[in-house]
Model the fold of this input.
Amino acid sequence: MNEVSIVRFFGNDIPNIHGSLQSFKNLQYILQNEENFSFCKKIFIINRIVDKNIEKMMIDEIKRYNFEYFVIPFKFNDFIKIFNEEKKYFYDEIESNPNNTEKFLKSINYLTNTNNARNKGIDLGFLYSKTVLILDGSCFLTKDLYFDFINKNKNIKKDEQAIFIFPMYRASNYEEINKSFKHIFWFEPQIGMKNIKLKFDLNKVWPDDKVELLLRYGIQGYWDEWKNNDQKYKKNNLLKIYCKGVIRLPSNTNFDFKNNTLVPEKHLIRRAGLLSLLKYALTKYE
Done:
């Protein structure tokens, strides 16, 4: 039995949010630069990649390093069945309101598939250990960050249920990661869990997919402002362990996500990117 499983999932690059082949480049960086931590099982999930060439590139790269992987395939026939329920809105909406994604949420949820991939990763991780970190594909752990977590994990009682909270630092480039200046970890966190399978809500669509779980378990932060009036924190006896954090690898776009004064623009860019991904997926046939 391993001490911990680290599960990451890699999905489609979203235009304007990610640079060209950015998910593949971040996967390469992790494989080449992250330590092979002792008593740690690493699992990589390839999550509904529309472009089969990119999917193959990712699989081949993971195989080079002999890590376990799992593929959630993009199936055009499944996708188009979902899209056909929504397409009556599609062309009129694209012309009249190009930044509106509300009428295509099922199609977008199929393409991004974030919470389904997270839940699958949690199930896979618990096959190998009692502690699972479920990380976005772009998240990187230095030795310092990993051993901060491991030391805290060792102090938890054997059968105690715990949730680990890893605030993020967003790196603008790969060179930042190992620089000596202090990284400030405060962005919306990544999650780990011990002795309990916390599941993500399958109805929540990126980029609001993870926040529901944070709100549900009372993990407080600036995302509290996004809570609806009918959302309430769930009473629970989970031990909450705050770790130093994780580093989010660069997206290689011109947009500065560290500048919170541009939040409205960020939402518009995300919506436009999701619609571009949707239009791209419609060009793919099995």
Notes: Strands lie at 4-10, 40-47, 68-72, 131-136, 139-140, 162-170, 187-194, 239-242, 246-248.
